[in-house]
Amino acid sequence: MSYTVKLAIFPPWKAPVPYETLTGVFTTASGAAEAGARALEPITERELADLASGLTPRSQRVGEGWSTAIEVPEGSIHGYLIYDETGVELSNWTTLDDAVERAAKG
């Protein structure tokens, strides 16, 4: 199977808007995710710094683990979409994914 990565803007509560397809086709989903993360690296840290002051994480116990949530910010954020060879979206990632992970770690 092969994978394609598209960088996208994710407006709050709306469908993502792809703006660039990364060059090349990736043989693994993890390779595609790494390429998307590398392409967005300069944007990600800046966005996370901008978001940090407005994040109010809430954690609650779920079964034997914990679940952490944050409010959806008002502005758009960046991320990427991973598609399979037939054009079906398999996964996506946004800077909010990192924000929630960091908030959960405290």
Separate helix tally? 2
Number of strands: 6
Mean of all residue-level pLDDT scores: 89
Q: Give the termini distance in whole angstroms.
A: 38 Å
Helix/strand order: EEHEEEEH
Low-confidence stretches: none
Number of domains: 1
In this structure, how is the largest beta sheet organized?
A: 4 strands, antiparallel
Strand numbers in spatial order across the main sheet: 2-1-5-6
- Which structural category do the helix and sheet elements fall into? alpha+beta
Strand content: 25-35%
The level of helicity is 25-40%
Tell me, briefly, the overall form: globular
Can you walk through the features of this model?
- The structure is a single chain.
- This protein is an alpha+beta fold.
- The chain has one domain.
- It is 33% helix and 35% strand.
- It has helices spanning 29-52, 95-105; strands at residues 3-10, 17-21, 58-62, 65-69, 77-84, 89-94.
- It has a 4-stranded antiparallel β-sheet. The protein has a two-stranded antiparallel sheet with strand order 3-4.
- Strand 1 and strand 2 (17-21) form a beta hairpin.
